[in-house]
Amino acid sequence: MASLDIGVNMAEISLSVEGRGGESLRNHYNQAMRKDKLVEWIKEMMHHSFVLGNSVESYITTMEYIEELVREHREWTDSSRALRRKTSRLKTLVPTVDVFHTELHLKDAFTKYNNKYAITSRKHVPPTFNEIRHVLNLSQLLAIGDDLKFISFDGDQTLYSDGGNFEEKSGLSYQIIELIKAGVIICVITAANYFHDGPKYEVRLQGLLRRFIKAGLSEEEINRFYIVGGECNWLLQAHKRENDEGKLVARIEGVEHEVWQADEYDAPKPSKWPQEEIDRVLDIAEASFNNSRQEMRLRARILRKPTSVGIIPGGAKMIQEVPQGHGNEKLKSEALDEVVLRAIDELNNMEHSVSFPYCAFNGGRDAWVDIGSKGVAVEALQAYFAIEKKSCVHIGDQFLKTGNDISARATCNTVWIESPKETFKILDHVLGISLGLDKMERAATEAKLDDDEQSPRGSPRNTPAGRMNVYTGEFEPVK
Ligand code: IMP
Ligand code: MG
């Protein structure tokens, strides 16, 4: 779906407590953090149709009305500032809404969705948040149509499960191969940061890379696959190479900063951001993570890299260090949200502002403050590939306030999924809508996945060299 922003009203719920010195200490329970106001508002609008007899007509009229509001909002955001009316109707109704890079085909999407899932036939359960998210996603893909030129994917929880790797038998691989063959540029934009170290990304994407070779993709086609690591800090590209045994393999290799961040491109250049400002952000984040670790008794480790700092489960050895604590295997999501919001708060109050964006997010099992953002990555690549915003889409799972995909909304269309399974559904729509492949053709391509020799089904994370630690990129010997 296109750009919708999530505002946080820090003062939504607050408890007033008298501090030791008599000063007022307030804790802010940040409810809006877990909400998307546009989706919530649409849900409310649909609820009216549900209560008032559930007629399909009523839902469709509502969808047409919202479609019209989006169109009007786009005219407002597109017009020059001098011409701008004070606000759009949509902005009045949903103040957090930002910019849409295309129209949304909500009526058609709703009709298609309802034809399949019969949501208007339900008598007890009105359309839910997730269903509206699905309809918005579909309306975005219908609006892009055959204008699609670039798809970026988040890694963890979008292409593979959190901390996992791309399985060779994943249906996603045949879909990505079809897109590449059709000329679409594919880029995994991930926070995972292994610098320009291609083999580390190869571990995470092994299954897909093997499929590129089995599908007989040419060098030119394989070259259309990119990775951005560390949010926006490292660009890498896939190549077709011969390995030591003379076998063809797909390899991931770094692209020099000077190439994709050349002066001629009117876009952000992360490699030129001042080091002292980067250090300032990471120092504050690291100090904040340390405090959180202590105060919340987290059995966690803090990891510092050149453009990021993370707090990760500390493993069994932390049990001794923090006997009355938690999180050595998995950090609680509540604790991770608190860690992130504290870091955001402290960074917001930084004495001297910095000249680049940064992001703080809850990664599901860990929390990070990263220099840069996925929005920066998309913007830099749009300039490098000379592709307009309306022809790009970013697919990810982290679109709430404490997520790291949300920043892409400012620079391209977005699709919000919750799991690799949902990504598969979305790509099936993309193959139909943007490439015009019919159901039979899509099924036939999928069937090809199973006709080769039996491939190892286990996690490709287990390489002969041992298991790779997804946080550090280090290989750990097999015990
Ligand atoms: P994404 O969902 O593909 O953006 O990947 C996010 C995950 O990458 C995090 O939750 C971490 O587990 C992992 N990761 C590894 N290194 C880094 C880093 O330097 N910054 C942020 N995340 C990292
Ligand atoms: Mg993710």
Biggest sheet record: 7 strands, mixed
Identify the CATH homologous superfamily of the largest domain. HAD superfamily/HAD-like
Q: Please, how many helices? A: 15
Rg over CA atoms? 23 Å
> Which residues form runs of ≥5 with pLDDT under 50?
2-22, 453-465
Bound molecules: inosinic acid, magnesium ion
In CATH, the architecture of the largest domain is 3-Layer(aba) Sandwich
Strand content: 15-25%
Q: Structural class, from helix and strand content? A: alpha/beta
CATH topology of the largest domain: Rossmann fold
TL;DR?
This protein is α/β, with parallel strands linked by helices and 479 residues long. The chain has 15 helices and 16 strands. The protein has 3 domains: 110 residues, no CATH class; 205 residues, Rossmann fold, CATH 3.40.50.1000; 81 residues.
Describe, in plain words, how this protein is organized in 3D:
With 479 residues, the protein is α/β, with parallel strands linked by helices. The chain folds into three domains: 110 residues, no CATH class; 205 residues, Rossmann fold (3-Layer(aba) Sandwich); 81 residues. It is built from 15 helices and 16 strands. The strands form four sheets. Strands 7-6-5-4-3-12-13 form a seven-stranded mixed beta sheet, sandwiched between helices. Strands 8-9-11-10 form a four-stranded antiparallel beta sheet, with helices on one face. It binds inosinic acid and magnesium ion. The site of inosinic acid has 21 residues, from strand 9 and strand 11.
